[in-house]
Amino acid sequence: MTAFAELMAFQRETEALGQIAGRLGWDQETMMPRGAAPQRGEEMSAMEAVLHARRSDPRIAEWLEVAEATDAVEQAYLREIRRSYERTCKVPADLAKTLARVTSEAQGRWAQARADEDVATFVPVLKEVVALKREEGQALSDADGDVYDAMVQDYEKGTTAAEIAQLFDALRPGLVDLRGRVLEKPQAKGVRGHFDAEKQLQLTEKLAQSFGYQMDHGRIDKAVHPFCSGGGLDVRITTRTSDDDPFNCIYSTIHETGHACYEQNIDKAYLLTPLGSGVSMGVHESQSRIYENQLGRSRAYTGWLFEQMRARFGDFGIDTPEAFYAAVNAVHKGYIRTEADELQYNLHVMLRFDLERALMQSDLEVEDLEAAWNDRFEADFGYAVDKPSNGVLQDVHWSVGLFGYFPTYSLGNVYAGCLYQALRRDVPMLEQDLANGKTSGATSWLKNNLQQHGGLRMPVDTIAHATGEEPNHLPLMTYLEQKFSELYDL
């Protein structure tokens, strides 16, 4: 075997073990008995030790030294393996193992603290997570480097915190201005009634399949915090139900379906290779957000969805497709990021970005996090947080050490704006198809232009290749301005 072939065979086994580790995390969120948490922490720690040892194996450096790529795909393989090797070697094995154990335990502590509305019981373990992540960031960054920049590279390689902050500074004024004008207008009437959970799940399974989700390579389960897990031939999603709010289940499912279809549609030649998953969380989020918002909340698609809802739930207080479209896109007060309307969603992300950046740079301590969150929320949204589950305890991310992840949600919205502009240009029958519940024109375009390529290109290059232009925030703001100006007669 050549050095390249030996390296790829070794990498394939590492990727397979990584999928197994991910399945442990999926099980912990969906089916694991609560009492198993301490043992699961040890299992996750053991898996991380094995993965860390493989990813930092000295033979990788030897193979990389002599391996020769014959085309762009092989060059990308070597690029990603080299990147992973260099980052892994900077993090001590004991630290990686401890992080896996502590974050597994912290996830259970977070869930209980959230249920009990008790921040104090979560603070000690979050302090431990933050201390470990700071240590990891210091190991990954240069001597005078930004610790938070090192965190961001795990989720959006090639992007810095300063670039993200600059983007957010460009987005914020337009968002705040548009929100102010919208909130001066009468708000749309919402749905009312009792929505049977089983019927919600039946509907959302149909919706997921209508967007191209392949159930023979996936499954839909319930979890506290909806997510997508896995890759290749096994991609699973979760959702949640609310008896009086079916939109929670519907749009959580469509959102996660976007993530899942990205993974399922990657070229199978990349299966269990460094290119066999989404290139970044920002690009991943562009898929979930364009499925959920530009497609799933469009006037055309909601007209079809209105009839699906009426067939299953009867009268739910809304009589026309137009009123249903307004209800789906209502701008309203709320605390929860995942339930926020398109207009305000990015403001929730910006709050988290600033707080976690301050935590990683030691400008904010965990003991002061709840107060900082509450102060910032009231300043940004104009009303006070009423309970921890609607505030600092609402998201799972920090408990599992995902610092640097939050800004990718807004990067995904920016990318989705660019993709939607190109999609409308290239798919002339888009609106007509969506009005009939058909998404194949849109999803085929996304598969062909972006999803099938997996991690072949860097994130920004992935969007530029799909759209023909470098990504920027203007298409998103144009889309939002047009949509909400029309909805609210601005």
From TrEMBL:
The keyword Nucleotide-binding does not apply. Keywords: Carboxypeptidase, Hydrolase, Metal-binding, Metalloprotease, Protease, Zinc. It is an enzyme of class 3 (hydrolase). InterPro entries: Peptidase_M32_Taq. It catalyses: Release of a C-terminal amino acid with broad specificity, except for -Pro. Pfam families: Peptidase_M32 (PF02074). GO terms for biological process: proteolysis. Zn(2+) binds at residues 255, 259, 285. Binds 1 zinc ion per subunit. Its EC number is 3.4.17.19. Its cofactor is Zn(2+). GO terms for molecular function: metal ion binding; metallocarboxypeptidase activity. Broad specificity carboxypetidase that releases amino acids sequentially from the C-terminus, including neutral, aromatic, polar and basic residues. This is Metal-dependent carboxypeptidase. It comes from Epibacterium ulvae.
